[in-house]
Design goal:
By secondary structure, the protein is α/β, with parallel strands linked by helices. The structure holds 2'-monophosphoadenosine-5'-diphosphate.
Length: 290
């Protein structure tokens, strides 16, 4: 790709940004789709967030992804916010508008699309959601709005799970959501669960850690989704597999949040063949050959 006077610039704002896979997604998509676009990481300190947004707009940066620690902090500096992002309270994608940036959350639409490509549905499922941080809250909202039959929100700090459950009940009318501790899981009466692991437990380098200890409940988990992708197979996924369940890690969620952002920035649809190729490139970048 030749950088010239018409090159569109996009980027990522966060802190830290040096381990991001997003440039692999966007620069390769641009290359494959023949779009004159470059995507670069921008390190932005918390105190500089407003200046970064204003500066980015002044420079006509077409789109930005937003990562830790700015996903909620960025909201006051936007000219508009998509209703999904507003409900979740977190923005990961900014789209240039004449009067500022509009904020979106493609993490959740990305997770949903990634699960669809793996044949994993939410509708009618009993969902065992592990964790009650920002990621878990967003996934709880997704499950509630995507027609889960029942959502069990499990967390070490029960109060945080209760708070989120209360918020989701208010936001998604009719949502069946209950907070519980990890110790209470075995006592549930349902025989089949979709489990979604939303904690940081098991993340590299603590690869042998798992938030839900091995036990009979794993026999009832037909599918285990882990939002973590480093390591590529977490201890949680290993346990789900060992008990006969299907697994998915967080790499496809990362891919599709990027693809949906790219589609918003360029007003296009990314074909599935391109998505598969980009996933391979992300794996190679991570040193995974399979
Ligand atoms: P994020 O915004 O990425 O979801 P977070 O808000 O820090 O991150 O949430 C991290 C989640 O991992 C929480 O559910 C946390 O449980 P607590 O609310 O009890 O802190 C969970 N978590 C982190 N370390 C844990 C551990 N060692 N055991 C159990 N849960 C843990």
């Amino acid at each position: 790709m030749k950088i010239n006077g018409k090159t569109i610039t996009c980027g990522l704002i966060g802190n830290p940004v040096e381990h991001t896979l997003s440039p692999v997604i966007h620069n390769n998509l641009a290359e494959k789709l023949g779009t004159n676009l470059v995507y670069v990481p921008f390190l932005v300190e918390s105190g500089e967030l407003e200046a970064a947004i204003k500066g980015g707009h002044a420079l006509h940066i077409r789109g930005m992804n937003v990562t830790v620690p700015h996903k909620s902090a960025v909201i006051p500096y936007l000219c508009g916010i998509d209703p999904l992002a507003e409900s979740i309270g977190a923005v990961n994608t900014l789209v240039y508008q004449e009067d500022g940036y509009k904020g979106y959350n493609t993490d959740m639409s990305g997770l949903f699309r990634a699960m669809q490509t793996e044949g994993i549905g939410i509708k009618g499922e009993n969902v065992l959601l592990l964790g009650a941080g920002g990621a878990a809250r967003a996934v709880a909202y997704l499950c509630a709005t995507a027609g889960a039959k029942k959502i069990y929100l499990c967390n070490r700090t029960l109060q945080k799970a209760e708070e989120i459950a209360g918020e989701i009940r208010m936001q998604a009318e009719g949502a069946q959501i209950a907070a519980l501790s990890y110790e209470e899981i075995e006592g549930l009466t349902e025989t089949s669960f979709l489990a979604i692991q939303c904690t940081s437990v098991g993340l590299y380098p603590n690869v042998s850690d798992v938030v839900l200890a091995d036990g009979p409940v794993y026999d009832r988990i037909h599918t285990g989704v882990d939002l973590i992708y480093r390591p590529y197979e977490t201890q949680f996924m290993k346990l789900v597999k060992a008990h006969g369940g299907k697994t998915m890690n967080g790499l496809k969620m990362l891919l599709y949040q990027g693809i949906i952002a790219y589609e918003l920035w360029n007003q296009c649809d990314v074909p599935e063949e391109q998505a598969d190729d980009i996933l391979q490139m992300m794996k190679e970048e991570m040193g995974i050959y399979e």
